[in-house]
Write a structure and sequence with these properties.
Length: 240
């Protein structure tokens, strides 16, 4: 279940099966942190390829976007500098500073670049021990910033779509609010389970006055289940 966009009170479920691949090559990696390319790796610094995406936003005959165009889904890609600030001696507890910069492109014909996003965050990872051995826990928090074009895609109201309850609006670029995310996951043989809880704060965001913003503070949650059907005969040690 996903909010149509940050600040929307409308949600949609997308119960579609998707492939889940774990691959650890010298450059490209796919794991529980997503798909990323390792550009360089040092003891305290890594430069990776960061990837994110947004779901489509459907305009219905009712609701805040009634009569407005449907928004295509987007994919975001760009470099991410990761600074390993601290590790405990057992490497079970670690604190990182992540500095991803991504360009967003619509998945439409033709695709359209809609601006860059900067999402710095502190990320605390913990590998469970004792009674919670096998569980992974994570806490991520930080602000978001985006160009005006990105805010315009989700929060602008053109003159032709203005109504008495939805005035025309043009957002500025800059601060996009903040978020905190708590997650947990565990592998059970050929199965993997994960869950998260996220809180968004939009107070002070550059698009906060948009009539399309229906809530400035809210919770979201989700769960995931993976069945690992097949594994390669050639295996390597995980960084974890």
């Amino acid at each position: 279940m996903f909010n149509d966009y940050r600040g929307s009170s409308s949600t949609h479920a997308y119960p579609l099966p998707v492939p889940y691949v774990i691959y650890r090559g010298s450059f490209l990696r796919s794991d529980r942190d997503g798909v990323h390319g390792l550009l360089f790796d040092r003891r305290y610094l890594e430069l990776e390829l960061s990837v994110n995406a947004t779901a489509p936003v459907f305009s219905s005959s009712s609701g805040i976007r009634a009569g407005m165009p449907t928004l295509a889904p987007t994919i975001e890609m760009g470099p991410a500098l990761q600074w390993h600030i601290w590790r405990d001696q057992s490497e079970r507890l670690r604190l990182d500073l992540r500095l991803p910069v991504r360009e967003a492109v619509t998945l439409a014909a033709p695709p359209n670049a809609i601006g860059a996003i900067f999402a710095p965050s502190l990320n605390l990872d913990c590998l469970g021990s004792g009674r919670v051995a096998g569980w992974n826990f994570g806490l991520l928090a930080g602000p978001l910033y985006a160009q005006r074009r990105y805010h315009d895609y989700f929060y602008a109201v053109a003159e032709q779509y203005a109504t008495p309850t939805r005035p025309a609006y043009e957002p500025a670029g800059g601060y996009s609010g903040s978020e905190a995310l708590l997650s947990t996951s565990r592998r059970f043989g050929a199965y993997w389970f994960g869950a998260y809880v996220r809180h968004d704060w939009l107070a002070g965001a550059a698009f906060g006055a948009s009539p399309l913003v229906q809530q400035r503070e809210y919770w979201a949650a989700g769960v995931g289940f993976v069945w690992m059907i097949r594994a390669s005969k050639t295996m390597v040690e995980s960084d974890d």
